[in-house]
Amino acid sequence: MIIHPIKPLYNQDSEILILGSFPSVKSREQMFYYMHPQNRFWRVLAGVFKEETPTSIEEKQKFILSHKLALWDVLASCEISGSSDISIKNVTVNDLSEILNNSKVKKIFVNGKTAEKYYIKYLEPKYKIKAVCLPSTSPANATYSLDKLISKWNIITKNSN
């Protein structure tokens, strides 16, 4: 059983929560989100907001908060082989109330089908907020080019106030 080691990233101004499934091995090692160099998350968000791709953890934190976003994962712990979402079993989910009670989050997006599956099963019934599933930024999602991901992820800017 692996316990999620990374704190949620948000502040009182966050309006949109983006949830992944569970951090990759690289992300767990570096204690921050989407740190595998092949994951396109940071390049996709940079494309959506028409900015340079943040590289350092500090730049990534500033980027998220400056766009009124929040980041976390659906799962608090699970059994997982490496970084493979397909191998996930014996899950426990995160308690989103800390973020929801201390921010302006009204919209939730999930990064990929695994995050969507566990969100719908465990979190949507509790919080009564429907999540919009976006195509995964994982390198395992080879059917989506970077441009196609950016085009699909643009929906997050249409939902901000």
CATH topology: Uracil-DNA Glycosylase, subunit E
Contiguous runs where pLDDT drops below 50 for at least 5 residues? none
Number of helices: 7
N-end to C-end Cα span? 39 Å
Highest-level CATH class: Alpha Beta
The chain-level mean pLDDT equals 96
Order of helices and strands: EEHHHEEEHEHEHH
Biggest sheet character: 4 strands, parallel
Q: How would you write the strand order of the largest sheet?
A: 3-2-6-7
Number of E-state strands: 7
Structure classification: alpha/beta
Tell me what portion of residues adopts beta-strand conformation: 15-25%
The number of distinct structural domains comes to 1
CATH level-four homologous superfamily name: Uracil-DNA glycosylase-like domain
- Overall outline: globular
Structural features, described:
By secondary structure, the protein is an alpha/beta fold. Helix content is 35%, strand content 19%. The protein contains seven helices and seven strands; from the N terminus they run ββαααβββαβαβαα.
Entry summary:
The chain has helices at residues 25-30, 41-49, 57-66, 97-101, 113-127, 146-153, 155-158, and strands at residues 2-3, 16-20, 69-73, 75-79, 89-93, 107-111, 131-134. The chain is an alpha/beta fold and 161 residues long.
